[in-house]
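ingest -> validate -> predict -> emit
validate: passed (alphabet ok, no gaps, 50 aa)
predict: started
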Amino acid sequence: MNHPVKECIQKLGLTHRAFVVLYNISWERFRSCLYGYTDSTPRAILNVMG
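emit:
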């Protein structure tokens, strides 16, 4: 099973860096979500995925 954030980024055709810059998400927040350091996905990322 792929991580939903990774799938979203792949579908958009973006790099991780481009994703955080384009959608104004902090790099630390993005990494925490992507690598499982947080229990929930930040609202800013959910809005992009929505």
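The CA atoms of residues 13 and 33 lie 19 Å apart.
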